Amino acid sequence: MQCQTVKAGVECIFMKKSGCSYNSGQCYPIVENCEGCSKIIEVESGRYCASFPYPAQKWQNSTCPMATHVKKAQKTEEQKLNPLKASKRSAGKK
Questions:
Q1: Phi, psi of 16, deg, nearest 5
Q2: What is the DSSP letter of 35?
């Protein structure tokens, strides 16, 4: 259904026939960490996240899972090699 409260005219999964079913009946504006994300929508009442009604909650513990402007660091750990197994492998290839 389309939002009738804060983001008027935008499709919202929380909008029901009885009104907004989210916690306090409204969506919250984006926080500073959200700046640069492609999920931001601008409406007359402000700037909001298209994915989450309360974006500040998604940034409390770590990065937002839907953030498009944050590059996730890839862990490149070298595989630990057991010296005993390595010597057996090299001995078998001779």
A1: -120, 175
A2: T
> Total structural domains in the chain?
1
Residue 84 lies in a domain: no
pTM above the 0.85 mark?
Answer: no
Residue-wise pLDDT for 45-60, tens only, equals: 889 888 888 888 888 8
Residue 7 lies in a domain: yes
Confidence of residue 76 (pLDDT cuts 50, 70, 90): low
Cα 78 from Cα 42, distance rounded (Å): 45
Is residue 58 domain-resident? Answer: yes
Rg (CA), the chain: 24
Bridge partners of 15, per DSSP, are 20
Tell whether the torsion through CA atoms of 35, 37, 41 and 42 is positive or negative.
Answer: positive
